[in-house]
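Lab meeting notes turned into a lecture example. A postdoc, R.K., suggested we walk through two folding results consecutively so the class can see how the record format repeats. The first protein's sequence and structure tokens come next.
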Amino acid sequence: MLGQQGRLVIPADIRSALGLSPGDRLHLHVAGRRLVLESSADAAAELRGLAASVPASRSLVDELLAERRQAAADE
């Protein structure tokens, strides 16, 4: 249930099924019209998996900088 102050209440049975405890850090994001809740550990593991698929010879920072420079030059 969403409270008047925008707080989301997760029912006890769902908290129990997900192994959530008071004080756990959670990550929320929107996927289409859905609100997805996952533990911060799960979100971090997913990001590590994505980063592991990038070859060490590829610099995402350099690619981003090149894209930004090109966008600035196109303005």
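The second example is placed directly after the first for contrast:
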Amino acid sequence: MSQQMLLLTAVSMWLFAGYFLAEATYYNHHMYNRYRALNHHANMDNQLPPEVPVVTEAVAPRSVNFSRTFYGIMFDAGSTGTRIHIYKFIQKDPVELPVLDNEMYHAVKPGLSAYADMPEVGGETIRQLLKVAKKTIPKEQWIQTPVVLKATAGLRLLPQEKAKALLNEVKEIFDDSPFFVPNNSVTIMNGTNEGLLAWVTVNFLTGHLYAKTRKTVGILDLGGGSTQITFLPRLKKTVLTAPPNYIAKINMFNSTFELYTHSYLGNGLIAARLATLGALGADGLDWKVFRSSCLPKKFREDWSFGGLTYKVSGIPDGFAGYKLCYQEVMRVVKGIVHQPFEVKGSSIFFAFSYYYDRAVESGLIDGSRGGTVEVRDFKKRAKEGKTLDVLLFSKEHSGQSPAAHIAQT
């Protein structure tokens, strides 16, 4: 079966908008005070939309002239960079979902994990990004605009005490800012929630959460430290045969979605490179050179990730190419990736992050207009060998946050 990938640059909203979607539709709902009376509390730790309790009394909505504009600030603390997303939402009806009106995006490199031994320096990158928020959001809105940071695989891979020091530094900076700081505003997001919120965001943007049908789309996210897959199974067999903890339920908008979701920690683009090179957790970084057949013979370069620098090269006296590289990679991923049968059929997935970057950098799509490619085109381009070094060791994260649309037919 052919597998087609339509890569879109128009959608720049990152997965964490799902958090604000949950907040906006809960705390600003015309029945919110009634919910509070029933002692309902939104789960601020998991950042998932709350399960709405049954309310027997009819409560009249606000005036038909109701219209509200609000903002949200989300920091994505990834393994290769820290990105700020400033969302502007408009809600024209109190009983309807808000609409994303605009997003301001800015990124800095490296990621917070690179400052594991210098949390104060890492915190300074957050201060600089908050200046962008102050310039974007009207001053009168600051006090009611929530600011949240969610760290992903980069901090999950750090020792606990170092990750905690970084998070504490960020929390102090948030507390000193003029913005609203919710409880648990600075946390490390687990892989399950990362996938679930990406799924909520993409289906919100594509209008599938508004639809009465269950024709949702799946998501594929390739980050630096981990990779996620999330979709709504059509077959009961998928649910029954999934490994433990691969199925998660999410209650949202009077519906329950039983999703297949999993995050492969250590299998993001950068972490997988380390594993392929045999450098993951290795000692002797000052003198040791990590070689791979995935790189051209004459390639040699210092490569930094997570605050560490690695010396990497091709194999000068050996061979390089697709087959040898494929064998190296398979030794790393074989046996750890579960492949649900139904995704081989007519499923639709949206893919983003490094999926998009690599498609652009390998010349498969136009960087501004996007395009449609087949998954096998990546394989073909790698076999050609002309872009092998680009695919593996090109500049990380272009500073954009586009999405990719993968249609499997």
